[in-house]
Amino acid sequence: MKKSLRGWLGALVSTPFGLAVLACLVLAAWALWTGGVLDGPAARQVRTSSVYAAPGVDLDRAAAERIIGNRRLVVLLLEPGADLRDGCRQVRRAAEGNVVLVMSPDGDDYDTWGCALLPGRDDENFGRAVVAETIISRGVDSFTDRPLDALKVVTVNYDLLVKAGTVPDGTRTISPSLPRFLLAGAAIVAVVIGSAAIYVAGRRAGRLAAARRHRRDEHADASSALGAGAAVLAQQIIDLDKRYAATRRRSGVTDVEKDFGRRYLELTSDYAGLLDRIETVDASDDAAVRQLIGHVDELSQRATQASR
């Protein structure tokens, strides 16, 4: 039996047809592997998206993707008690080159685990990766019941890391896996109907997917600017909250501190109303989005004045 099998394989590889079949099989295996055929649900999601939410986690994923935009940032929201470190391991190949933050609600706080999958993270960029993993989750514990606001804080932290040169600047490139699966199918049936037509169809599907993604990103520019401004405002309010809490603990309060408290409460009230408007705004209504951006800028200036 073994001799006959070896003889059959020898006869197969000794002909151009057999070599072509083996080449197609190798190509199909490579395409399936690089396309993520063995990936888990989190890895499959983050190959074409910046956000993954585990089943049972309440998150508007479309809004979350608009907040992150095209940053090299991937956020995983897992169920309470999940193994966060394992979450990083699951997406290591799918999110290569990005800063990954895994989050899980834990009472009034978030359990977080950062993994900066940056080039050279194990060698010359080890220190930068450690800093990025430490900074990226700062401030999220104040928004355990509002995950979208927590994501806005994460994007602010990411932008600060880019500005400091800790994380390389640039946008994330999404490589759709659909063309690779089509390529694998084309390789398998190449000896029957020919691979050329299916390969072209696969490449065309990839271009269409990339074009749709590009058009969606263009329409989301204004929404991304609104999300970034709201995230900066959220961080300002977090900073003011610490000062307000310290003022309330003291027994003797000056007139200046009373004025600060009044302005702080007015600011937080207006900010809560702003969040409701942001949640309900139609992203395709440019006029409404620009109006909200102006409102965010106004509140940000008030927060700056209150901090003086």
Secondary-structure map with pairings?
Layout: H1 2-13, H2 16-34, H3 41-46, E1 51-53, H4 61-68, E2 73-77, H5 84-90, E3 99-106, E4 109-116, H6 126-135, H7 147-163, H8 178-188, H9 190-193, H10 196-219, H11 221-249, H12 255-280, H13 286-307
Helix pairs in contact: 2-8, 4-7, 7-11, 8-10, 11-12, 11-13, 12-13
Short note summarizing the structure:
The protein is of the alpha/beta class and 308 residues long.
Strand content: 5-15%
The whole-angstrom Rg is 25 Å
The secondary structure category is alpha/beta
Indicate how many domains the architecture comprises: 3
Question: Helix and strand string, N-terminal first?
Answer: HHHEHEHEEHHHHHHHH
Q: Based on the coordinates given, report the CATH architecture of the largest domain.
A: Roll
N/C terminus separation: 86 Å
Q: Counting H and I runs of at least 4 residues, what is the number of helices? A: 13
Biggest sheet layout: 4 strands, mixed
Kindly report the CATH topology of the largest domain. Diaminopimelate Epimerase, Chain A, domain 1
Q: Low-confidence spans: pLDDT under 50, at least 5 residues?
A: none
Average pLDDT reading = 77
Strand arrangement across the biggest beta sheet: 1-2-3-4
The first-level CATH class name of the largest domain: Alpha Beta
The percentage helix is 55-70%
Please state the overall shape, judged from the principal axes of the Cα atoms.
elongated
Number of E strands: 4
